[in-house]
């Protein structure tokens, strides 16, 4: 199983050492299985949907740091309303640079008709733009 994970990471162009990442992912999966029976909704229930406590428990997991929690919160806000609105520093840097707003609430207002799913997409896209420094490839449509 470990070698299969390493192969998948290598073929996907993973920049970090695939063998180390494969080990960490295996450890992470095992802990999630042992503690939460493979379901992070149990973690959420355990802390009564408190986002800061969710963050604290997530960072206790192997290989999970604040950056990984940010990524998790960016995506999960579409399903866990107590996390919304969420935007990490990468998304907010892009939003500011693109004059889309200063806060997660500003971004939520931009997509209010689309709900939390669209907010999750927007925040993820903004983070990716910032992380990849792809500002020069954008063409923003303005009303």
Biggest pleated sheet: none
Low-pLDDT sequence parts: none
Number of strands: 0
- Figure out the total of helices: 8
Q: State Rg.
A: 17 Å
Strand portion, in percent? under 5%
Element string (H = helix, E = strand): HHHHHHHH
Which terms would index this structure?
mainly alpha, 143 residues, 62% helix, flat
Describe the structure.
- It is built from eight helices and no strands.
- The protein has 143 residues and is an all-alpha fold.
- Helix 1 (2-11) crosses helix 2 and helix 5 runs antiparallel to helix 8 (115-132).
- The model has no long low-confidence stretch (mean pLDDT 91).
Task: Write a brief structural summary.
Helices cover 62% and strands 0% of the residues. It has 8 helices and no strands.
Q: In terms of topology, how is this protein built?
A:
Blueprint: H1 2-11, H2 18-36, H3 40-46, H4 51-58, H5 66-76, H6 89-97, H7 104-110, H8 115-132
Helix pairs in contact: 1-2, 5-8, 6-8, 7-8
């Amino acid at each position: 199983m470990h070698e299969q994970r390493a192969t998948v990471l290598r073929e996907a162009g993973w920049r970090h050492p695939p063998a180390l990442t494969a080990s960490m992912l295996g450890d992470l999966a095992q802990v999630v299985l042992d503690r939460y029976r493979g379901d992070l909704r149990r973690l959420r229930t355990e802390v009564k949907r408190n986002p800061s406590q969710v963050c604290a428990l997530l960072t206790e997991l192997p290989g999970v740091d604040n950056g990984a929690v940010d990524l998790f919160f960016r995506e999960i806000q579409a399903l866990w309303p107590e996390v919304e609105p969420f935007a990490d520093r990468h998304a907010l840097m892009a939003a500011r640079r693109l004059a889309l707003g200063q806060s997660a609430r500003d971004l939520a207002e931009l997509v209010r008709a689309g709900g939390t799913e669209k907010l999750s997409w927007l925040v993820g896209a903004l983070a990716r733009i910032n992380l990849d420094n792809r500002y020069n490839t954008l063409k923003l449509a303005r009303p």
